[in-house]
């Protein structure tokens, strides 16, 4: 291996592992086949990786874009590693995107091949394949694909993934030395992947991330979280097409030598956690909220003594946590109470996660403070991180020994993060990992960043790149925040800010998070830009609603998007009024409509990362919004 690039490019990481950390016979990946978990060693993975590289015609063309639209699993890893080591560029596509969006990405990137994970995705690609002139090969990663090709005349060739590997195995000996030369010719500055972000407005933009972006981001993140070890097991369920899971599970495990187990699905996640017993998991805030809500429901539904014990335990956990966080020693009585709470309550909740969790890493959105504290009270460490696709992604992450709930942690080494006045562009402060002070606080403004994490730019979009990365190298995140107790704290998105008719600035996220404390509410979409007061679309918690009113599935299948039932409105309004007391008067919801079902990706209302497309929603439901401001105030 070229010592210049050893452990500095994505394909060098696995070779370094086998050379210095684990033997080739050590388990690398695990997935479920039928009813059994099947382990895959590093050696077995490398054989398939080299076979795929050997198959590729014209693999000497460094920089070729090779697309993936495939679920999490070993095949994603094999294909990605194979194309990375011959200088290919991983162009990942969210499986939930429409045919039109897939077509745009394939053409914008000039992708030469695309691997499809299942028949549904294969059929999507077949519909638009002939509109993509650069596309040479479609690779179904499943059997019996031929039936979908009947009466289909394609310009691109089709080869089953298994067949590709079989052919490639016969070519490894012939092309092995060429593959090695190609791998060692890759530089840290070379492009590693294109990740297309749809955002809440506009057409998708291909974020160009280099090998240095990826590897350096992983290295400094592990410096910040040094408790991740080569013996750990990660359970992966978030999509690898997203930068968060790709970096914080896949690439972290490649760097640290940890094992990756792939969950079967979100629906089977709880079952898989019990089977795999992971040490580390990446998650999104909504999953943690659901675990919290279910735990509270299960713990209190029986009433009586059991409910009292359940509610007593977190209170003891909170006192114990605070005592330890402040660096004090908890007393004998509190230690005894905590041991009893652990035995009666905490251990039972932990068993449902497999019982071995050291940490959960939360990203992709703001984690409500009360949810982080709840898990901390149980003794489950939830570390928050922050970043964008454009920042590789990690800019900040919570330190294990210093947790300030409601913040996203300390700035990682090697980058600068500044807070800039939105209007005047004055930079209030520039902070680094080294400048950290536990008592430091700053004014609020836009978060900007520069350093090794910043993307190379948007592919084929120089104007958009220049609008995002200024002449001084600062990438403008579009997020509003400040420093609090030395940690970065996210307030909201700049584009989300509402300005009411009286000129008051309202950031929706903290307001929405206040109302999300209600177990009756699934999500909140705040309205009120240039209006006299705030209103909202409320999506109720489905299970709570069904249980309260005895509703079946047909209720949620009705064509009318909003629920007009007075009893349901009054039921929700009880919590809305109570929680409104925690907010300033101009931030309080004065009227609301209850949306029957959540906003949908298929309807174009949310992005693949579950962010609401404000302009789309406001245009689609314009009549409902006008009704909110025409009728009587509901929630005053």
From TrEMBL:
Pfam families: AMP-binding (PF00501), AMP-binding_C_3 (PF23562). Keywords: ATP-binding, Ligase, Nucleotide-binding. Residues 31-459 form the AMP-dependent synthetase/ligase domain. InterPro entries: AMP-binding_CS, AMP-dep_synth/lig_dom, ANL_N_sf. GO terms for molecular function: ligase activity. It comes from the Bacteria. SUPFAM superfamilies: Acetyl-CoA synthetase-like. This is Long-chain fatty acid--CoA ligase. It comes from Mucilaginibacter humi.
């Amino acid at each position: 291996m070229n010592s210049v690039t050893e452990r500095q490019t994505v394909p060098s990481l696995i070779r370094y592992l086998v050379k210095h950390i684990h033997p080739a016979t050590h388990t690398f990946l695990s997935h479920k086949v039928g009813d059994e978990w099947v382990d895959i060693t590093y050696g077995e993975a490398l054989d398939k990786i080299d076979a795929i590289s050997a198959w590729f015609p014209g693999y000497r063309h460094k920089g070729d874009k090779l697309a993936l639209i495939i679920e999490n699993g070993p095949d994603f890893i094999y294909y990605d590693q194979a194309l990375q080591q011959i200088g290919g560029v991983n162009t990942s596509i969210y499986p939930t995107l429409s045919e039109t969006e897939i077509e745009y990405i394939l053409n914008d990137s000039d992708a030469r091949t695309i691997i499809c994970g299942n028949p549904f995705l294969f059929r999507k690609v077949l519909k638009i394949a002939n509109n993509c002139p650069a596309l040479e090969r479609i690779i179904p990663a499943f059997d019996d694909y031929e039936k979908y090709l009947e009466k289909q005349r394609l310009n691109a060739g089709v080869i089953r993934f298994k067949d590709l590997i079989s052919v490639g195995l016969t070519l490894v000996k012939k092309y092995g030395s060429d593959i090695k030369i190609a791998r060692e010719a890759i530089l840290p500055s070379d492009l590693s992947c294109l990740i297309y972000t749809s955002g809440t407005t506009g057409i998708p933009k291909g974020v160009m991330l280099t090998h240095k972006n990826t590897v350096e981001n992983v290295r400094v993140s592990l410096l910040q979280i040094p408790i991740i070890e080569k013996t750990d097991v990660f359970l992966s369920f978030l999509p690898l097409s997203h930068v968060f899971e790709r970096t914080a599970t896949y690439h972290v495990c490649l760097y640290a030598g940890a094992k990756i187990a792939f969950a079967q699905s979100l629906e089977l996640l709880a079952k898989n956690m019990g089977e795999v017993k992971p040490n580390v998991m990446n998650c999104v805030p909504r999953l943690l909220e659901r675990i919290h809500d279910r735990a509270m429901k299960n713990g209190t539904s029986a009433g009586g003594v059991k409910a009292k014990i359940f509610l007593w335990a977190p209170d003891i956990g909170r006192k114990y946590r605070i005592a330890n966080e402040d660096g004090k020693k908890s007393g004998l009585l509190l230690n005894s109470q905590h041991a009893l709470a652990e035995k009666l309550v905490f251990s039972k909740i932990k068993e449902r996660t497999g019982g071995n969790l050291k940490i959960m890493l939360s990203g992709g959105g703001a984690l409500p403070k009360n949810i982080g504290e709840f898990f901390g009270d149980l003794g489950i460490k939830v570390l928050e991180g922050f970043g964008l696709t454009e920042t590789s992604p990690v800019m900040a992450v919570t330190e294990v020994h210093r947790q300030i709930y409601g913040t996203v942690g300390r700035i990682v080494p090697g980058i600068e993060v500044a807070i800039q006045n939105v209007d005047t562009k004055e930079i209030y402060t520039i902070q680094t990992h080294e400048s950290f002070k536990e008592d430091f606080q700053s004014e609020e403004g836009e978060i900007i960043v520069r350093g090794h994490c910043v993307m190379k730019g948007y592919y084929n979009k120089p104007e958009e790149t220049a609008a995002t990365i200024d002449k001084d190298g600062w990438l403008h995140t579009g997020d509003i925040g400040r420093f609090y107790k030395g940690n970065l704290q996210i307030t909201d998105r700049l584009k989300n800010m509402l300005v009411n008719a009286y000129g008051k600035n309202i950031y929706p996220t903290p307001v929405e998070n206040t109302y999300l404390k209600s177990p009756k509410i699934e999500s909140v979409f705040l309205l009120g830009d240039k209006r006299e007061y705030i209103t909202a679309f409320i999506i109720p918690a489905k299970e709570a609603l069904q249980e309260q009113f005895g509703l079946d599935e047909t209720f949620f299948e009705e064509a009318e998007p909003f629920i007009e039932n007075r009893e349901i409105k009054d039921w929700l309004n009880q919590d809305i009024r109570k929680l409104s007391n925690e907010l300033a008067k101009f931030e309080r919801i004065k009227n609301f409509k209850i949306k029957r079902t959540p906003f949908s990706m298929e309807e174009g209302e949310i992005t693949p990362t579950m962010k609401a497309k404000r302009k789309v929603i406001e245009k689609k439901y314009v009549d409902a919004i006008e009704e909110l401001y025409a009728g009587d105030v509901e929630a005053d």
